[in-house]
């Protein structure tokens, strides 16, 4: 119990003083996750809007596949990305393995289905309201998609925050493709695993405090957005 208390005190001091190593790892984690979120949102949200407005033969199967991929094991994603980026893989010549780019790629693959599925549910309901109006004024498919994306921006932001929460806490795939290299690819989750194994509980707890703070901030933001949406305010 004494060791735990001392570890908490030291961790709190590291957070308050914004320790250089802690700051470096936290900022790298944010940079990687936010980049992955932007890329994934740029893919997932237009895809969700397209699936809402366009009818084609296998649309239901595509939607079902997206929903199923929400539970895709991250370590499997990490393994596939590793094989693709390794020297013997098709993209090995690019030299991206064990770089932040590889970590971003893995995170994008993991969160695209999550963001697309959540966004599609909201956009599908909105399309039912707008369908007759948009059809009657004879707008193009691109205009339909743009209208849905703009009017559902709050729900899409919530989907993006959910993707951020999933990505920021990822460790399996990031460990495989990033290698947890100091000053290069070490992020919050991999650093926590490393420092715990080394017995440096103070730094591990400090990193955990930062990670929990980010996760709580995301959940508070989602709750606030949901509450304001029910109250009918932007």
UniProtKB/TrEMBL annotation:
It is found in: Cell membrane. It is a multi-pass membrane protein. One of its GO terms (cellular component) is plasma membrane. The chain crosses the membrane at residues 32-51, 63-85, 91-116, 155-181, 201-225. Residues 26-222 form the ABC transmembrane type-1 domain. GO terms for biological process: transmembrane transport. Its main location: membrane. Keywords: Membrane, Transmembrane, Transmembrane helix. InterPro entries: ABC_perm_TupB-like, MetI-like, MetI-like_sf. This is ABC transporter permease. The lineage of its organism: Bacteria, Pseudomonadati, Pseudomonadota, Alphaproteobacteria, Rhodobacterales.
């Amino acid at each position: 119990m004494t060791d735990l208390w001392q570890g908490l005190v030291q961790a709190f001091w590291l957070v308050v003083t914004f320790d250089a190593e802690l700051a470096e790892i936290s900022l790298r984690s944010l940079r990687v996750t936010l980049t992955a979120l932007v890329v994934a949102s740029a893919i997932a949200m237009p895809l969700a809007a397209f699936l809402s407005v366009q009818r084609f033969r296998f649309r239901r199967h595509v939607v079902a596949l997206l929903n199923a991929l929400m539970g895709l094991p991250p370590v499997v994603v990490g393994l596939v990305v590793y094989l693709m980026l390794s020297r013997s893989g098709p993209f090995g010549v690019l030299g991206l393995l064990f770089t932040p780019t590889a970590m971003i790629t893995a995170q994008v693959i993991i969160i695209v289905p999550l963001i697309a599925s959540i966004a599609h549910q909201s956009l599908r309901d909105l399309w039912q309201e707008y369908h007759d109006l948009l059809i009657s004024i004879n707008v193009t498919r691109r205009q339909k998609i743009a209208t849905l994306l703009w009017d559902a921006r709050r729900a899409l932001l919530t989907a993006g925050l959910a993707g951020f929460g999933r990505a920021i806490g990822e460790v399996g795939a990031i460990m495989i493709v990033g290698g947890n290299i100091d000053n290069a690819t070490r992020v919050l989750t991999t650093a926590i695993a490393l420092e715990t194994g080394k017995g440096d509980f103070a730094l591990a707890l400090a990193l955990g405090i930062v990670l929990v703070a980010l996760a709580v901030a995301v959940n508070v933001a989602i709750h606030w957005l949901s509450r304001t949406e029910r109250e009918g305010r932007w």
